[in-house]
Design a protein that fits this description.
Distance between the termini: 15 Å
Helix content: under 10%
Oligomer: single chain
Strand content: over 45%
Number of helices: 1
Radius of gyration: 22 Å
Structural class: mainly beta
Length: about 375
């Protein structure tokens, strides 16, 4: 996989994908838009919320009289909304989009409805190499404020074992095979696949994106150690989602140094100017480790890494013509269209088994 030499990060955005996303506006800043706030909210089944705020902006981004707003829910089995008053009622667990239409323009927000006791896996598909271990992250919400203990189990198999605390140990190649998390009367299921690469193809990954975008997906995985400007080596792993031969979504993580041994490195922040400006090059001259999640939608949707993430390479194995690595990552991707809004932060995490090739061509 040759690196994207001197490619701007905008070029990492990929072709369109339907997402459960709540865009803060209905188009680019040069068009009229309606902004619904807050862009993200949550409630329990049976709870109610008052109407959201909707503001209308003209093509010059000036606030104008909004007038009457017509409210709709994308899924009435998740929540209902009074079309006139905007009052919201939680009906069933899930996530759905709230739309507010005014002056012929629609703005959206995302609402997440939880059971009174709600258990969810923050990473429900795991890719490992034999010998790897990982503890499954989860979230437990209890309206009564006294959450019960969570425990895990799976059917006996030769591929992996899972302890009661959710610690997975990969034993042999195979899968995906299921495991289950339990909390009182609720449960959530995930899957484990253990991969042993034999050449520099066939990488696997899975990742979740949460927040105002909800994505749980499996993807490919490929990586490269390549020469950056200055003749030092750096590393990039890409996790593309490919449909009908076309990559429609991607996570790209770039490190300052090449990967030769297991270890953990911090994922730092990258600013809008660094990502999309013309004065710096974070591909050929990465000043620090950074990451981006990207989908080409209308408008384009991107999450730029904030400070505080990590990537861990758990194993490095030799292959003909390259290496194989397994790893995991977790970072917060700040939506570029909501860069100053705390609700635009997207928790992103995943696991991967990827082939790594060397590219010694000068980075341009």
């Amino acid at each position: 996989m040759p690196p994207m030499h001197r490619a701007r990060l905008a070029g990492l955005a990929l072709s369109g994908l339907a997402l459960a996303a709540a865009c803060g506006d209905s188009g680019p800043s040069a068009t009229p838009r309606v902004v619904v706030a807050p862009i993200l909210d949550s409630l329990f089944v049976g709870d109610t919320l008052p109407a959201r705020t909707a503001r209308y902006f003209d093509a010059r981004a000036d606030s104008q009289a909004t007038g009457p707003v017509r409210w709709t829910s994308s899924n009435r089995f998740v929540f209902t909304v009074d079309s006139v008053s905007g009052a919201i009622a939680g009906v069933g667990p899930g996530a759905a989009v709230l739309s507010g239409r005014a002056n012929g323009i629609t703005g959206t927000a995302l609402l997440v409805v939880s059971r009174l006791l709600d258990l969810s896996l923050l990473l429900d598909t795991v890719y490992l190499m034999p010998g790897d271990t990982l503890t499954v992250p989860f979230a437990l919400r209890d309206k009564n404020g006294s959450p019960p203990p969570v425990w895990f189990d799976s059917l006996s198999n030769g591929v992996f074992t899972i302890g009661s605390t959710g610690r997975i140990t990969a034993n042999g190649v195979g899968g995906p095979l299921p495991f289950t998390a339990h909390a009182d009367s609720v449960s959530a299921s995930g899957a484990v696949e253990v991969v042993q690469l034999t050449d520099t193809t066939g990488g696997r990954s899975a990742f979740t994106v949460l927040g105002t975008v909800i994505r749980r997906t499996r993807a490919g995985a490929r990586a490269v150690n390549y020469r950056r400007q200055g003749d030092t080596a750096t590393f990039r792993v890409s996790l593309p989602v490919v449909v009908s031969g076309v990559a429609i979504e991607n996570i790209v993580i770039t490190l300052r140094d090449s990967v030769r041994l297991p270890g953990t490195e911090a994922i730092d922040s990258i600013s809008l100017n660094e990502a999309f400006g013309s004065s710096s090059d974070f591909v050929c001259r990465p000043a620090r480790a950074w990451a981006i999640w990207s989908v080409l939608s209308t408008p384009p949707l991107r999450g730029l890494s904030r400070q505080g993430g990590t990537i861990t390479i758990t194993q490095v194995a030799g292959l003909a013509h390259g290496l194989a690595v397994s790893g995991r990552f977790s970072f917060t991707g700040q939506r570029s269209d909501l860069y100053d809004d705390p609700l635009g932060a997207l928790p992103i995490r995943g696991t991967f088994v990827a082939p790594v090739i060397a590219d010694n061509r000068p980075c341009r």
